[in-house]
What we know:
The structure holds two protein chains of two kinds. Chain A is globular, with a radius of gyration of 22 Å. The model of chain A has no long low-confidence stretch (mean pLDDT 86). Chain A is built from eleven helices and 14 strands. In chain A, 36% of the residues lie in helices and 29% in strands. Chain A has helices spanning 40-47, 69-75, 91-101, 110-120, 133-145, 163-180, 191-194, 214-219, 233-242, 266-275, 289-299, and strands spanning 2-11, 14-24, 29-33, 55-60, 63-64, 76-79, 151-155, 183-188, 199-204, 207-212, 225-230, 246-252, 255-260, 280-285. Chain B is mainly α. Chain B has helices at residues 2-18, 20-40, 59-70, 82-90, 104-110, 125-150, 173-204, 206-211, 217-246, 255-279, 283-299, 312-318, 322-336, 344-364; strands at residues 48-54, 74-79, 96-100, 117-120. In chain B, helix 7 (173-204) runs antiparallel to helix 11 (283-299). At the A-B interface, helix 2 and helix 3 of A face helix 1 and helix 8 of B.
Amino acid sequence: MIEIKNISKSYKEVKALDNISLNIEEGRLFGLIGPDGAGKTTLFRILTTLLIPNRGTATLMNLDTVTDYKKIRRQIGYMPGRFSLYTDLSVQENLEFFAKVFNTTIESNFEMIRDIYVLLEPFKKRKARDLSGGMKQKLALCCALIHKPKILFLDEPTFGVDPVSRKEFWDNLKKLQKTDNITTVVSTPYMDEAALCNEVALIQKGKILAVDTPGNISKRFTHKLFEIKTNNNYKALLLLRKMDGINSAFMFGNSIHLTLNNSKKVTQLSTELTANSFKFSIKNIEPNIEDTFMELMQKE
Amino acid sequence: MLRTVRHIITKEFKQIFRNKTMVGLIFGMPVIQLLIFSYTANFEVKEINIFIENRDNSPTSVEFIHKIEASKFFTLTNVATYKDGLKLMEHNDIDVILSIPQNFGKNINLGKPTNIAVVTDAINGVKAGIIQNYLQNVVLRFSKEKITSKVKLRKMPGIEINSHNWYNPTLDYKVFMVPGILVMLITMTSLFLSAMNIVREKEIGTIEQLNVTPIRKWEFILGKLMPFVLLGIAEFTLGLLIAFFWFRTPIEGSIVMLYLFTIVYLVLVLGIGTFISTITETQQQAMFIAWFFSVIFILMSGLFTPIESMPVWAQRIADFNPIKYYIDVIRLVMLKGSTFVNVSKQFTIIVIYAIVLNVLAILNYRKTSG
């Protein structure tokens, strides 16, 4: 469905994308995971025909993003990272406008947006600027879907949205994928969302670190992972990072995720922590995507 | 195709009329400006404070002073010595000092030549020139009267000017200025609105969403321009009504022609605005560029100062000024009743300009960046 071959893009001195290749199959919910400035938005803008790459080619449905951009634009939906609807128009008016410019009507494609629209309906007369963050995202998604696109591009759609709305949003995406077989490419900085995708690409500094299913990505983790909870995590983290035999130590919420070098034993570690008068618990856990991502980033 | 344009136009109108402040500005501002400017952009100098030193004190000199007093332009402030006059001028209380020499009356009665001294406050050169002109008129009339009465039957050789002011018989500045000011206001409103328009979509990010739609460039620009053409026409109508009913400006020529020119001219101005919109990234940049051009256009349009009195290089620059042609046409058609044939040259220039600028704007607007 989407084939990206050796794409590079630079802005003056900055290399935003460095020789990226990627294949995304039809009907997938594909996640692009990476920190800010990794090149996610640049890749989106190339795929949505808004930006011409310096090198390489990208095809969507066998249509080239540079030469067949007109055909592509009819068949994709794009939700930019920044809210891009008319804030002085109402929910209804925005939706109508985007339906019309695609030469269709809300009614004819209503099935596609029904589930999302029912949540918006009570506010349909309200100006877009007066909507909450979550509602804005839902409206933007509706507008991107109103012409029944085959591929949907969502650039950090849940950024700055509350957890409940985020969950609803992802439920909607899952449902769209199931009922309409839409191929969705979504970028996110949230690792918990990555786990909801069929396949994810970890991207950093314009390079792809890994492409796989979330489950397989986690399996790429090469060390034994420990979770440590202490009475003062911050102090403990500083200590651990200075200690010999520690491979990596990262703060994860209210615990520390830790890997050890082969020479180091857990008992040794415990002794040292006790010696520094920490109260702590330590256990072996399964790595998740974020752990893998941190590890891959560290290797780079 | 045209359906898409229509959808964009509908959207634009919704947005424009939803912004109440904007509507007020679009219609209220030009009306107020037209009313104010038309009264103030006036080159007549009235109530000139004149100071007279009379060193003669003959009946003739008193008669002469009465003549000056009788003129509607002059207000006699004082009759005293020249020194007193200079003091008053320093305090800006008077504009001009007239000094009548000794033997003024005697010489005139004898038919001998005589001089009077005129000292004008020339801080404002234009005003000083006009004052001297007025005064000269009074003096000429007075001396002519004296000569013909004293030197009877003797025909004076010389040329006398009999002037008639055609197309504006009473030399009313308002009649001349109102059409020009109307043009200036329509130009400014249209230019600013269109310059800010597309760049606004860039600034708030909506252009990103629009660019992935199948809207074509020309559809987008046409859809963006049309509402402003219509607004411009409405504004022109409003201005024309004020000119006709309030200022009693004559409309000698064809109204249809006025509108024809206005429409083409609006397309031209909006083309400039749109072009500015495509080369800028923020509304602030667009504002300043629009401001830059409108100041040049207006000052070099012949509205306030005649183009003929500019240096040659400036006249060549003014040849590229679209406002110049439109002001020309509006004045000619309104005051002189010129027909299409008389203004076909201006029409051709405006049309060519309109086409070139709009094509440039469309070509320069990019949906994809490299």
